[in-house]
Amino acid sequence: MQQLLDTAEKIRTMEIRGAGRIAEAASAALRDYVLDLKVTNIKDFNKKVDEAANILIQTRPTAVSLPNAVQITKRHTSEDVAGAREEILHNAEVFLKQAGEALERMGKIGAKRIHDGDVIMTHCNSHAALSVISTAFKQGKDISVIATESRPRRQGFITIRELNDYGIPTTLIVDSAVRYCMKEVDTVIVGADAITVNGALVNKVGTSQLAHAAHEARKNVLSVAETFKFSPNTILGDMIDIEERSADEVIDQEILAELPNVKVKNPAFDITPAEYIDMIITEVGAFPPQMAYTIIKEHLGWELSHMG
Ligand code: RUB
Q1: Which residues make up the CATH 1.20.120.420 domain(s) of the chain?
Q2: CATH 3.30.70.100 fits 106-306, yes or no
Q3: DSSP bridge partners of 147
Q4: In angstroms, what is the span from residue 180 Cα to ligand 1's centroid?
Q5: pLDDT value at position 308?
Q6: Which residues contact 62 (CB under 8 A, 6 or more apart)?
Q7: Known catalytic residue: 193?
Q8: What is the DSSP string of 221-288?
Q9: Any binding-site annotation on 47?
Q10: Complex-level ipTM
Q11: 17 annotated to bind ligand
Q12: What confidence score (pLDDT) does residue 7 get?
């Protein structure tokens, strides 16, 4: 259990971050937990697995990849502990393999939408978006990237390091320079923490400003999202919970203490409506956001939302 608690803490404190990485870490943590779980009764086994699953799911509320990965990993039909353990280990193995393959496939599919000479703007740090950008670059396309800083946690600094390592010409901008710089941009490429049934994109706060500015300037907006980032629960009317993080991330606590009339609001994500998104690149193809329902139904199975 200690190992699973450590992973949960790393997700909560964002040592492990990004919707894809969170999902993979949670699936692996659950796999390792059942491997060591010493119970003989299936009821006790299921109870313990549910408890462990809930600990993982409660670490961060917005990335739908997290509950989806946990549900996909823990579902089993066995009536005995050995069989259930076997199924869960198999589920984790398949999920982790498919997640790796998805990243590669999305890179190949998305790269077709990037052309020689393109300037790409990206936000935060998305491995899915970077897979598309790096694949296009490796194909020999002459591209450059404008990367936002992504306050308050500055995930843009991770992005510019990765882009630098690929050798991709990169410009770092502050978030408030997005609209000013949009005239130079051909395509905006971002990741996703969740896609809702109506095709709305939930991603790092500021994404909707990028998409809005791109829409105004008639530039393309692509979101790159594995099918496990689509939200089955939104079919049942649920809303995506937008994580509010601590004020400390935005302002020094000592400064804030001197300002009794000031409070801080720090939403970690925002919502971009479907009409600002041209395409969602998944591992099973590039779709208009309006097809989110079909993707959930055919590739994810919205029975996920009825489970545990
Ligand atoms: C990360 C973020 C990323 C998505 C997709 O937010 O918003 O764009 O999670 O990432 P945080 P990936 O840093 O708060 O986790 O494509 O790597 O799954």
Answers
A1: 2-104
A2: no
A3: 122, 172
A4: 24
A5: 42
A6: 193, 194, 202, 240, 241, 242, 243, 268, 269
A7: yes
A8: EEEE--GGGB-GGGGGTPPPPPPB--GGGTS-HHHHHT-TT-----BSEEEE-GGG-SEEEETTEEE-
A9: no
A10: 0.99
A11: yes
A12: 98
CATH code matching the domain that covers 2-104, chosen among 1.10.530.10, 1.10.357.10, 3.30.390.30, 1.20.120.420:
1.20.120.420
Residue range(s) occupied by CATH 3.40.50.10470 in the chain = 106-306
H-type helices in the chain, by residue range?
A: 2-12, 19-36, 42-57, 65-74, 81-111, 127-138, 156-166, 178-181, 207-216, 253-257, 292-295
Q: Above 90 in pLDDT, residue 306?
A: no
Distance 125 CA to ligand 1 centre (A): 6
| Bridge partners (DSSP) listed for residue 272 | 201
Q: What is the DSSP letter of 126?
A: -
pLDDT in tens, 118-135: 999 999 999 999 999 999
Q: Which numbered atom of ligand 1 lies nearest the CA of 20?
A: 18
Give the model's pLDDT for residue 299. 84
pLDDT given at position 300: 79
